[in-house]
TrEMBL record:
Gene: murF
Binding locations of ATP: G109, S110, A111, G112, K113, T114, S115
Domain Mur ligase central: 107-296
Single GO molecular function: UDP-N-acetylmuramoyl-tripeptide-D-alanyl-D-alanine ligase activity
Name listed for the protein in its UniProt record: UDP-N-acetylmuramoyl-tripeptide--D-alanyl-D-alanine ligase
Cited NCBIfam families: murF (TIGR01143)
Pathway where this protein functions: Cell wall biogenesis; peptidoglycan biosynthesis
E.C. no: 6.3.2.10
Localization in the cell: Cytoplasm
SUPFAM superfamilies, A to Z: MurD-like peptide ligases, catalytic domain (SSF53623), MurD-like peptide ligases, peptide-binding domain (SSF53244), MurE/MurF N-terminal domain (SSF63418)
CC terms in the record's Gene Ontology section: cytoplasm
Top-rank lineage group of the source organism: Bacteria
Species of origin: Rhodovulum bhavnagarense
Purpose of the protein: Involved in cell wall formation. Catalyzes the final step in the synthesis of UDP-N-acetylmuramoyl-pentapeptide, the precursor of murein.
């Protein structure tokens, strides 16, 4: 197989100068994850990547992309020297996209981007080689990195695009040049940088500005802000597909039947009824799946086959993954189930996660406490702006909260929820995650189902790590796909 980048190709793409001939099989920005043969990109963030070039070369990097020869590195070392490393990475990503024959799908939204990306990876894999970032690489360096890593022979590429502030999505979308652009949903998130949901919708709708001529725009058709998305799509797209509950949506969600670890989804596509299973009991996953089926439709795939493929998909770690943690090596029934949704949070995604918890079935009579409990551990939702106190307190009124037995809260913002909860549901409040993680073994019991959810900055993933250490963690049993 030919190299991902030769020295000549990379120099031509970036306008840089190479010190010798080399070829790279991958692209890396982190020496901890670098594989021999990678091109190491010396980005500057919290640390200057040039400080790690010698280490990268010592670990077998094919070359390093730098703006100067770093200290401790020989002048004749394999380098690609450019004026600005980030600009060069973006140029490399642009060249990777331009030479590719892959059908490119771009995904954005206030929630569900990464899960939808992983659904697409799974469904498209049955049709050809799929390229998608392993992590949530969706910003000004993650998007070009994903494109720079795009294999020459990929049939499909799925690129996640995120934002924190106005004006971020359009330049990334134009870099990606997607054949299909999908918006998962619009919800209260990043309100610190936007006046209202309409502002978020306009920013998310900017993803359509990057569409190739004749490209397809896909978005939720039944939100209050859907007219804003529709206007953006009409201005840029050759074809438009929508999904949601409304009858006029191209893909309509008609019903969801919840089971303990799965759900059966009934939907209507453009030409046929659809019935399929998803191995997670989250209504948001059902809606994301309709977006995925719309992508499959736009790419000419058989919708029934794509729906069947969704039955084998499971959420990734931190995005709703379900774990069974055996607390006793001998007595197998002494276990706790954990729903790991600790990567991100906003009011809409917490509502969905609580629905999943409400559908779960604790086990009675196996622990110290006679009755198994549904326990939510909720960390701060960040970047919500002036409404943050009201939005946190408002979680107490969510319908799914009626089936939650106990809520532990983490962070100064979640204090508003703590005091809004009825006394019988109040667990404990912690200013930060670390002390809760230290005490978690006293706060759960065999038979419990525990949801951990919060923005990444709340660090509630520490609680998941602590739960994993209580025993042997394995994926929760899944129902067999039909």
């Amino acid at each position: 197989m030919s190299a991902l980048w030769t020295a000549a190709e990379a120099a031509a793409a970036t306008g840089g100068r190479v010190t010798c001939d080399w070829q790279a099989d991958g692209v890396s920005i982190d020496t901890r994850a670098l594989a021999p043969g990678d091109l190491f990109v010396a980005l500057t963030d919290r640390r200057d990547g040039h400080d790690f070039v010698a280490e990268a070369l010592g670990k077998g990097a094919a070359a390093a992309l730098v703006s100067h020869v770093p200290g401790g590195v020989a002048p004749d070392a394999p380098l690609l020297i450019v004026a600005d490393v980030l600009d060069a990475l973006q140029a490399l990503g642009r060249a990777g996209r331009e030479r590719s024959r892959a059908k490119v799908v771009a995904v954005t939204g206030s929630a569900g981007k990464t899960s939808t990306k992983e659904m697409l990876r799974h469904v498209l894999a049955g049709q050809g080689r799929v390229h998608a970032a392993e992590a949530s690489f969706n910003n000004h360096w993650g998007v070009p990195l994903t494109l720079a890593r795009l294999p020459r022979d990929a049939a499909f590429a799925v690129v996640e695009i995120g934002m924190n502030h106005p004006g971020e999505i359009a330049p990334l979308a134009r870099l990606v040049r997607p054949d299909v652009a999908l918006i998962t949903t619009i919800a209260p998130a990043h309100l610190a940088a936007f006046d209202d949901l309409a502002g978020i919708a306009r920013e998310k709708g900017a993803i359509f500005t990057g569409l190739v001529p004749g490209g397809t725009a896909i978005y939720p058709g039944d939100l209050d802000v859907s007219p804003i998305l529709a206007e953006a799509a009409r201005a840029e797209a050759g074809d438009i597909l929508t999904f949601g509950h409304a009858k006029e949506c191209t893909f309509r969600l008609k019903g969801v039947e919840f089971h303990e670890n799965s759900m059966v989804v009934q939907a209507r596509g453009p030409v046929r009824e659809l019935l399929f299973k998803i191995q997670s009991a989250g209504r948001h996953f059902a809606m994301n799946a309709l977006g995925v089926l719309a992508v499959a439709e736009s790419l000419g795939m058989d919708g029934a086959v794509a729906a069947c493929d969704l039955a084998a998909w499971v959420p990734p770690a931190g995005r709703g993954e379900r774990l069974r943690i055996a607390l006793d090596m001998v007595e197998d029934q002494l276990a706790v189930e954990v729903i790991d949704d600790a990567f991100n949070a906003n009011p809409a995604s917490i509502a969905c996660a609580l629905e999943v918890l409400a559908a779960a079935r604790p086990q009675d009579g196996v622990g110290r406490i006679a009755r198994g409990r549904r326990i939510a551990i909720l960390g701060d939702m960040l970047e919500l702006g002036p409404q943050e106190q009201a939005l946190h307190a408002g979680l107490a009124d969510l319908p799914a909260m009626t089936k939650v037995d106990l809520v532990h809260c983490v962070g100064p913002r979640m204090r508003a929820l703590y005091f809004a909860l009825p006394l019988k549901k109040r667990g404990q409040w912690f200013d930060e995650a670390e002390p809760l993680a230290r005490k978690i073994h006293h706060m759960i019991d065999a038979g419990d189902v525990v949801l951990v959810k919060g923005s990444k900055g709340s660090r509630v993933s520490m609680v998941v790590d602590a739960l994993r250490k209580l025993g042997q963690a394995v994926p929760a049993p899944q129902e067999e796909p039909e």
